[in-house]
Amino acid sequence: MNGYHFYWSTVWQSFPLMLAGAWVTIQITFLAFIIGTVIAMPMAVARQKGEGWAYRVSTSWVELARNTPAVFQLFVFYFGLGAFHINIPSYAAVLISVSFNNAGYMTEIFRGGLSAIPRQQMSAARSLGMTSPQSFMHVIFPQMFKVIFLAYITQGIWGMLNSSLGMLVGLQDLTGATQYAQSVSFRTFEFFIVAAGMYYLIAKGLQFSALIAFRLMYRS
Amino acid sequence: MQFQFAQQGLTWHDTYFLAEGLLNTLELAASATVVGTIGGVVLGWVRTVSVTARVATTPIVDILRSVPMIIQLILANSFLSLAGFSTSPFIFGTVALGAWMAAVTAEVVRAGLLSVPPQYGKSARSLGMNRRQELVYISLPLAFRTALAPWINLVLSLIKDSALAGVIGYVDYMRATQTLITRTHETWVLLLGAGFLYFIICYPVSKYSRRLERKIAV
Amino acid sequence: MTLFGKTMLATTVLALGFAGHASAQSQSALDKIEQSKVLRCGIMLDSPPAGYRDENNQPDGYDVAYCKDMAAALGAKPDIVEVSSPDRIPALVSNRIDVLVASTTPTPQRELTVAFSQPYTNNVMVVVTNKSTGIKTFADLKGKHLGGVVGSTPEQLFKAKMATDWKNAGTTYTGYASDAETDMALEQGKIDAILIDNSVFRALAGSGQFPNLVMGGNAPLNDWGSLAVRRDDFQFLNWVREFVFQQVQSGRFAELYKKYYGVDAPPLTADGVTF
Predict the structure, then answer these.
(1) What is the DSSP string of C2-59?
(2) Where does the signal peptide begin and end (chain C) (predicted)?
(3) What's the complex ipTM?
């Protein structure tokens, strides 16, 4: 096409570099997924209540996470903290900003799931002598995850997509490694095609393992 | 006098430059929304009626949903360029964002169509409507009700993702902000301004979509 | 075959047809410029003073001025096309631009993809550091946290040093997307030092936004920049090479360099060899 010749061997030479980048992407996606979930569970409960300081904090969090670009959120965590002389490495900044975004979106997903669960469930659990946190952990949340499973996993993948912005602040994730490799050889097309393929495989792999985990948990 | 290239602070002229960037952001988001929604409705409908079509289109939909937008933009730009379409970044951006929008809208439309109980369609057919009439007057309006709120959320994501179109040389609001940062080094004013601007565009829309969700849930 | 299958097939054939049509054109950029009277230059406008936007947000800089001279010599109008780092090669290969004027460092590896002229610019780099680090010379960078723009020449130098002399000394390197991020990271102390052009440092210091930055001596680095054209366009490459020669011998190179970089132009040749 247009006198352009594809050189795939260049990509294979840099392949170990891209694999290392892919590993960083997987780590951040997974950790941000877990951190986001842990933060989103109490926030969803607070949002359900509709009043109090916890409601106001979680509502502001949700609105900021959902209504500003992910690039903006990343810059605030990387350079914004830096302005107060808190310097965190790019890895931590990306992890925090993706977790922040995940938590915001997951709160709304969880809230939707919680409203699908009949109120009587909570009363029943409480009447069995469980405390409020116990009722949530053992009765309400297990049912909720079943309802929102697909949206929940989709958000995990979105977290992976957001982590690609780490390239801007020097993270050697899959996108960062690809950008570096293509700047050395100028083989833009070849490198980004391979990167796209790798992202697809990572997303599929994560979806598949989530599905298996889900099956195992709800088998009984 | 010594030539100095980058010491000017922000001027009133820059508001005009940012306004142009904002207009570009809105134009790109609007055109990608139109292209993506039309494509997504067709794709979503096709995916509910034909199994062959569903199997054939699944990889495309999957790939578009699992590759970061920054890479999709670079690839769309590269491949359309290689194929000999040498047009503006606006077109490339519309193609990349529109393709993503079509893929995700298709799923929303499909979910919407599947939420219409099959008896409704059968009743319509037994009233003497043909396939097309049934789709236009019964199924699509009902699906629209379910799909509207999730679709609005997709439009929001699209607006925010359009902030990445700068990587292919499109001067959107984010790119205009970066250009001014390079020149004036007034990082914080400009960056917070950008965050605030996206927020005031997105917040009312997401508020509306949430109200809609509640209304439908009742 | 279903209707759907036929549609897919038709679309594919159509797409291939377009591609085939495009590959038929292999005219030299020289002839096209001669016909259209327009020279399209791809320039990166996020790397002052080579390329930036002035206070009216119009493109300016050494590269922009160079492009205008080139257009004048061709009797054509200059068309400045802003390109970003990952867009440089697609823009060139796809004929959206005729020549890449982006202070691009020529390397044998890159020359497999595009064709470079001899150097048309040479940036003399200095070490810039945060006051608190105490770095005085390039040698002090050993064991420090370094930064730069992905794909730049300083990055290559740092990586080479870290693989040899500075090995196991705890030296780290972080590559950012552009100058704006790199400068901020340095000011905030996320990294200890960067290598930038002397004039860029003066502009940073003069902006008042970077009170902590100081200069830490010269860097042992010639940052050659070449013009790039499509790999198979020898006719245009010849013209470009001759133009670079004329710019230097007419004194225009020295004039432009002095204007934008504020210092006397360094030589465009390496000792003992011609390009």
Answers:
(1) -HHHHHHHHHHHHHHHHHHHHHT----HHHHHHHH-EEEEEE-TTBTTTBEE-TTS-E
(2) 1-24
(3) 0.84
